[in-house]
Amino acid sequence: MTPGSRSAGDRLTAQLAVSGVTLRYAAESGPVTAVDNVSFTIGKGERLVLLGPSGCGKSSLLRAVGGFLRPVSGEIRLDDAAVTGPGPDRMMVFQEFDQLLPWRTVAGNVEFALRRARHLSAAEARTVARDWIGRVGLSKFATAFPHTLSGGMKQRVAIARAFAVQPAILLMDEPFAALDALSRGRMQDELLALCQETGATTLFVTHAIDEALHVGTRILVLSANPGRVAAEYGVPEAAADRGAAQLAKLQADIQAVIFAGHGPMDDRDIAHA
Ligand SMILES: Nc1ncnc2c1ncn2[C@@H]1O[C@H](COP(=O)(O)OP(=O)(O)OP(=O)(O)O)[C@@H](O)[C@H]1O
């Protein structure tokens, strides 16, 4: 994708097509196939969740869409242009709290991304950054440095930065996994609200079924070793309201698919809470 080739109106709403993608690493012990022949599409404004046990290749797929990992076979296209490397049309939010530039303030982090990715003037970047920092509830911390923030606040900054840049697609790699349960639930709600408000096309990785049901419009379940598409589910609207009753069956179905394709699991594999 050539940066800037899409009009501003199209941003945050691209279509992604992953076709027959196989990803492999050259490990010391030999080649490791992370995912094998995986295909899916994400329509404009959809939130697709990649769900599966540890090691099934969720993060690898996300990195490939980000342009950081080249498929050994298959192809990834964003708005019908081949993904051949990283670009500002894809913004990633990671699980780790250290994804901000430690020597820049909250505002400085968002402004820096805006100037680099959207080529805004300093004044324009300041205005857009202020708006997004406000939308994630951090106006009072605009001049704070990352090391003075809680984990949840740092994730909010990373999310504000990602949305502010208006990428074609947001790539989220378990952004709330390191948060306590209370913060995680609140952040899921806030992210959902921002996605619904902006119509952002989103690819979200998690190993928690409840999170997948809450934030996604569609769920792709991957089996492990190597990762292959095991099942796909549409998520009913009610999931966003945490309407547990009608989701129980869907949750049980997904759980059955994951357990069927997996041997003994460790605690980290599938989180329910
Ligand atoms: N840099 C690497 N070198 C070699 N093998 C790797 C590398 N990164 C990942 N792998 C392997 O690729 C497979 C998929 O890993 P990946 O991190 O994509 O899975 P995941 O589903 O995101 O796991 P988790 O939920 O634990 O983060 C695993 O077998 C892993 O060991």
Automatic annotation (TrEMBL):
A UniProt-annotated Pfam family: ABC_tran
Xref: InterPro entries: AAA+_ATPase, ABC_transporter-like_ATP-bd, ABC_transporter-like_CS, ABC_transporter_ATP-bind, P-loop_NTPase
Domain ABC transporter: 16-252
SUPFAM superfamilies named among the record's database cross-references: P-loop containing nucleoside triphosphate hydrolases
Keyword Zinc among record annotations: no
Top-level taxon in the UniProt lineage: Bacteria
GO molecular function per UniProt: ATP binding; ATP hydrolysis activity
UniProt xrefs under PROSITE patterns: ABC_TRANSPORTER_1, ABC_TRANSPORTER_2
Entry keywords, A to Z: ATP-binding, Nucleotide-binding, Transport
Residue intervals passing through the bilayer: none
Homology family: Belongs to the ABC transporter superfamily.
PANTHER family: ABC TRANSPORTER ATP-BINDING PROTEIN (PTHR42788:SF10), TAURINE IMPORT ATP-BINDING PROTEIN-RELATED (PTHR42788)
Protein name per UniProt: NitT/TauT family transport system ATP-binding protein
Origin species: Arboricoccus pini
